[in-house]
Design brief:
Keywords: Cell inner membrane, Cell membrane, Membrane, Transmembrane, Transmembrane helix, Transport. It comes from Pseudobutyrivibrio xylanivorans. GO terms for molecular function: ABC-type transporter activity. InterPro entries: ABC2_TM (IPR013525), ABC2_TM_bact-type (IPR047817), ABC_2_transport (IPR000412). The chain has one domain. 77% of the residues lie in helices and 0% in strands. It has eleven helices and no strands. The chain starts with a helix and ends with a helix.
Length: 258
């Protein structure tokens, strides 16, 4: 038991160290550095709000705040899944020569994307104040929501990482796919404003489900429909189990290919 605890601590220490180095490298390339993590979703919110507020007929209360939550969740999925997909190939020297477990790099990319989400929420504070968003105890529900999101992304990331090691074109295909999901995940448009024939299908989109649950807890302080929780639970556990199985099955092949 103690050995397992020490191993978890050691792995988490490695994840934090790699994440810190990645953050330093990323922020060193810009003048604003760390502050880009805060300003980026805020700028997107302003642009999308101004654009879609004038071309879409809607009755959405606090529309900029509505859009901001969608951007944060979408960016989390986008950044974490892409990072997890590429991490094995980009760290092949450490995996092959230093014998570092491949799992650590996937977890590190998700952890780094999670930190960016926390930074983004700093920009949400003035939005809450300006639009008089009333927070309630339902904010606590964000904890299980993000746990399910992390499980979903982790499973998805493992599947993509395995695929990318053997098929480099997966990067291009997934980049197009995740870009298309931006327009059908309710980032700037609620489900009931979309074509009726697509609503049922789109309601199974895990990014849409995550955005919907987060908005209810953070923006509207209301209970979400139980089917949304059930669908996201199925996605989270289904992808986590399948992704872990696929990753473990191909672990030796991955190291050999790298």
């Amino acid at each position: 038991m103690r050995e397992n605890i020490n191993k978890v601590r050691q792995n988490f220490f490695i994840i934090r160290q790699i994440s810190y180095k990645d953050s330093v490298k990323k922020t060193a390339e810009t003048n604003l550095g760390f502050f880009w993590n805060i300003f980026n979703p805020f700028i997107y919110m302003i642009v999308l709000s101004l654009y879609y507020q004038n071309i879409i007929t809607h009755d959405i209360d606090k529309f900029p705040a509505f859009v901001f939550v969608g951007i944060i969740i979408y960016n989390f999925y986008n950044s974490a899944s892409k990072g997890a997909m590429r991490c094995l190939v980009s760290n092949k020297n450490l995996i092959v020569r230093a014998k570092v477990s491949p799992d650590i790099f996937i977890c590190e990319k998700i952890f780094s994307a999670w930190k960016e989400v926390l930074y983004s929420f700093i920009a949400y504070i003035p939005i809450i104040i300006y639009f008089h968003v009333k927070l309630s105890w339902r904010v606590v529900i964000l904890i299980p929501i993000f746990l399910l999101m992390i499980m979903t992304i982790c499973g998805m990331g493992k599947i993509l990482a395995v695929a990318y090691v053997f098929f480099a074109d997966v990067d291009y295909l997934y980049s197009i796919f995740i870009m298309l999901l931006f327009y059908v995940s309710g980032v700037f448009l609620p489900l009931d404003h979309m074509p009726i024939q697509f609503q049922q299908v789109l309601s199974y989109n895990p990014i849409f489900l995550s955005i919907y649950l987060t908005r209810d807890a953070l923006l509207y302080s209301q209970a979400s429909h139980w089917t949304a929780w059930l669908k996201l639970l199925i996605w989270a556990f289904g992808l986590m189990l399948f992704g872990s199985w696929l990753f473990e099955k191909n672990r030796n092949r991955i190291i050999g290919k790298l």
